[in-house]
Fold:
Amino acid sequence: MARRYDSRTTIFSPEGRLYQIEYAMEAISHAGTVIGVLAKDGVVLAAEKKVTGKLLDLSGAKEGGYGGSGEKIYLLNSNVIGGVAGYTADANSLVNYARTAAQRHLLNYNEDIPVELLAQRLCDMKQGYTQYGGLRPFGVSLLYAGYDPHYQFQLYHSDPSGNYSGWKATCIGANNGTAQSLLKQEYKDDIEVKDAIGLVLRIMSKTMDSTTLGSEKLEFAVLTLDSATKQPKAKIYKPAEIDALLQSEGLGKKDEDTEMKAA
Amino acid sequence: MECSFALTGKGYVIVAADTTAARSIVKMKTDEDKIKSLSPHLLMAYSGEPGDTVQFAEYVERNIRLYQIRNIYALRPSAAASWIRRSLAESLRSRKPYSVNLLLGGYDTASHEPHLYWIDYLGTMTSVPFGAHGYGSYFALSLLDRYHDPEATLEEGLATLKRCIDEVAKRLVVAPGKYIVKVVDKDGVREVEL
Structure:
């Protein structure tokens, strides 16, 4: 029965479902996990990279650019960081659209786009793809970690149907149920960024398949306020910085030499 | 001739404009309100070519209202000023530009600060502590430079405005007789008697 209704996004099935959207969401639940936590003085994002391997050339992510390997975490505007789960190719086009929308707002109003407005702009586009034109919706969920003077720090989630919602802590991608329930247990309303970083990394290490965390499997970003200028400061960690952070949180790879000495 | 003044103070902006509508050398009426409330915390005094002024002010008013309905939040004064400036700059480069000068006063509910913007028909915009348009500005600006205090209370601010209006009445040949005065602060927009 379903087969007659799932070849087009525009057609409801007799049970009132849009199969293509459900399939898109299914695709996302196999993608690399992205966790976002809203703290009192900032927002933390962490993402699991799925595309790895010895032969993959990651030298581009090591230096230059603004941090991030261009797979999971992107700078959408100076006040918003986006974390994506799903099809990277679809995500690229959405990230491009988000950056254009943010710059258009800057041009018209000479201010950084408010976070919820940016989420809305993307959701309007995503919703369009569930109704007109093409054959399939965007296979991407996003987390938006941002700051604006209206509501200070914010964390939003949007899915392929074009729904969006604000969160204190949330998770998308593989194992999101496990991470979600861990967040529910451990999240506190007055959490600070330094504790949120620890929380995110601990949950990440529990939900990921690999035993040890490392920069080749992880992307990480923090949005805070610059103490001098009071402007939002988006920091997307470079691989070396991620490894240093994991070391300081006691979650990094153990140095074999020191282990040998201890034994 | 048309005069408008505006000044900031501690948590407020005062905007004043004359109320004469004139054509050539004839006063047509003396109770025209040339200050529009664009949003609960935004005031705009307009002067310039009659007709252009009202048309442009209504265009701005409707667009700012539309933004407020479409999006979750009202435009902040700085964003509204930038948008208005851009509209004027685009109009200037069209076949028939608006010749409208503006004073935009607003209270930013996000940062809790008053803001005043001086905008002219060429699309010049500056954020100022006080400002004026028209012949009155030649007399008022020096007074405002001497007496303006960003920490002044509303009473002191109104007294400074009174000085400007009195000086213009005393020295300017074509001084307007009546003014309308509006204030915007954390409680919103209201008209005050001088």
Observations:
- DSSP finds four helices and twelve strands in chain B.
- The domain at 4-192 of chain B is CATH 3.60.20.10 (Glutamine Phosphoribosylpyrophosphate, subunit 1, domain 1).
- Chain B has a mean pLDDT of 96.
